[in-house]
Amino acid sequence: MTRLPSSHLLAALMSTTAAPLYEITEFERLLQKPNGDPTGLAGFFTAGEVIVARVPARLDVMGGIADYSGANVCEGVLGRGTLIALQPRTDRTLRIRTVQSGKPSLPVETRIPLDYFYQGDGIAPYSQVREVCHSNPLVNWAAYVGGSIFTLIKEEGIRMPYGFNLLLMSAVPMNVGIGSSAATELAVLSCVSAHLGLSLGGDRLAQLGQMAENHVVGAPCGIMDQIAVALGRQGRLTHILCRPGAVVGEVAIPPGTAFVGINSLVRHSVAGNPYADTRIGAFMGKRIINDLRAKSGRAPIGYLAELTPDEFTADYKTHLPESITGADFLAQYKTHDDPVTKIQPGATYRVSGPTAHPIFENDRVLKFMDRLRAASAGDKNALIEAGELMYGCHASYCDNCDLSVPEVDYLVELVRKRGVKAGLFGAKITGGGTGGTVAIFGTTEAIKEHVPEIAREYSQRIGRMPDIFEGTSPGAVEFGSRLYRFGAKGWQPA
């Protein structure tokens, strides 16, 4: 939502040095502003206690959209984050305010009555709350906050006796592919669950965040982002197996190297058609493969990534259509077995490419993490091999999924043009594609020298200077929550 001061740029992504968290510093500054200052918080929070959670953005290093097909993925946590501050109210209203961090601006507010979350003696259906949260397009962002609270209420069976004042403050731009949605969802869930004294682990918080995004926000995302920002740790990459979602372990960044992201300034959304159509095509492919397996007496697969590239190529590739209309697919197979997307009979969906992508991407991710470990053990060629796997991922987004755009391809080419001789090993599109952020891997020195050059060269093409996303910070569980109390000296950490 804001551009950080240039002095924050170009620290190595996975440096283990702890630095003050920008959003916490900014929040504490706003807390101290006097009554009457419209940019402060004196009129929003009353004297008492405020609980705060802060969750980082994530960089999709490898894996991306293969998450919903049960793939292994490799994710990092960035230096930017989203902060939620919460204070109980005496009535049954959620008062949600968002402010831009880092520059003077008037806040934007909306209110959601908690009664909308209940129906008689029970809890309302997701469809009702989704309609409420999207009833005013000017405050669609509130769906991430209200939707997360509702999902917690519904899935944990909570009868909430009172509402909250909730402040949303973020340095994570929306729709640029670094997990702004997941950061908001996990910050809300962490804050509310800490206030209520719930003992929910990071994996459960991640699951609730994904459910909020699927069923209230309406985005058919996998669970990769939510797990990455919930359980990611400062200075490390996280290895996640998305079946349905669990942390396998951590991967060290090879000494003297770093990952950063550059914003292409082409906005993307996982709620948009290209992402959803690619997901539908992948689930169509799985349905066709399971039909073939049933005919040959084999058990069905739960996820496409259970197949190896060799098995897919030998047994299934030639049986998949390049594309198919929704009507033709439904007539033959009835369903694609995906609860969060809907096949449109009049639409045409690519099938072969979106089905192949997660199978081969899963293989690339495993090889990529192996190459990072080899590089950490001293194999210099492994850095080059890891970078080539990133380029392979990008090519598959383009060729198999049609999820890249010319601007992103140009950024990747600017990295490739400088190449290994300059210390830049690889680059790729991230997350849901169709714009967003490009991940770059190189030596720390090459990142410092060449990434600003790439940003400037790119700006000459599009007319604007892109953000560089770098740094590292604690995930939701690692950060926990903080309590602030109002006393004789004003607001102070408890």
Automatic annotation (TrEMBL):
InterPro entries (alphabetical): GHMP_kinase_C_dom, GHMP_kinase_C_sf, GHMP_kinase_N_dom, Mevalonate/galactokinase, Ribosomal_Su5_D2-typ_SF, Ribsml_uS5_D2-typ_fold_subgr
Domain GHMP kinase N-terminal: 152-232
One Pfam family, short name: GHMP_kinases_N
Gene3D superfamilies xref list: 3.30.230.10, GHMP kinase, C-terminal domain (3.30.70.890)
GO terms (BP aspect): galactose metabolic process
Keyword hit for Membrane: no
UniProt keyword list: ATP-binding, Carbohydrate metabolism, Galactose metabolism, Kinase, Nucleotide-binding, Transferase
Domain GHMP kinase C-terminal: 381-449
Residues making up the signal peptide according to the UniProt record: none
Superkingdom, natural source: Bacteria
ATP-binding keyword on record: yes
One GO term describing the cellular component: cytosol
An MF annotation (GO) of this entry: ATP binding
Protein name (database record): GHMP kinase
Species annotation: Nibricoccus aquaticus
